[in-house]
Amino acid sequence: MFNKKSQPEKSLRQHALEYLGKREYSYKELGQKLKSYLDVDDDVDSITAILDDFKTRGWLSDARFTEQMVHARRAKFGSSKIIHELREKGVESSLIEGAVEQLKETELASAKEIWQKKYNQAPANRDEWAKQARFLQSRGFGFDTIKKVLSTQTDDD
């Protein structure tokens, strides 16, 4: 039988490569993941050195992470929620601004699509309108976009 204790201890570098092999990570996010593997003797500077090396080699890229995150989230969420997630992950504000421009172009179409999957029927009264608006707001869409989506659906009927 295979004994776990006989396996050699993985280095921080190996853990980082395993994480990056699964998906893109932001610099800050990967650093936080690696902190859980630090021994008492290890120094936080060792994580910074690994991350800087990966960044230099092009293995770790906040720009790629941002692009991937926007692509994956835009089908379910609005720009506000996506921007908030990017900030939490430690993405630079210049990259976030680029993502905002990209998201704003398709935000109305995304909101309509998300609304259609959930409701596909114009609100019959004020309570339903408020319920549908809260749903879209919880998905990260702004009030202007919500108003356009729900008023367009009402006008179409």
What does this structure look like?
There is one protein chain. This protein is an all-alpha fold and 157 residues long. It is built from eight helices and no strands. It has helices spanning 12-22, 27-35, 44-57, 62-73, 79-88, 93-118, 126-138, 143-156. Helix 5 packs across helix 6, helix 6 packs parallel to helix 8 and helix 7 packs across helix 8. The longest helix is centred in the C-terminal third of the chain and has 26 residues, at 93-118. It is elongated and about 65 Å long.
Please tell me what the overall shape is.
elongated
Structural class: mainly alpha
Low-confidence parts lasting 5 or more residues at pLDDT below 50?
A: none
Rg on CA atoms, Å? 21 Å
| Number of strand segments | 0
What pattern of helices and strands is seen along the backbone?
Answer: HHHHHHHH
Relative strand content: under 5%
**Main sheet characteristics:** none
Number of helices: 8
Helix percentage: 55-70%
Report, as a whole number of angstroms, the end-to-end distance.
67 Å
Mean pLDDT value: 88
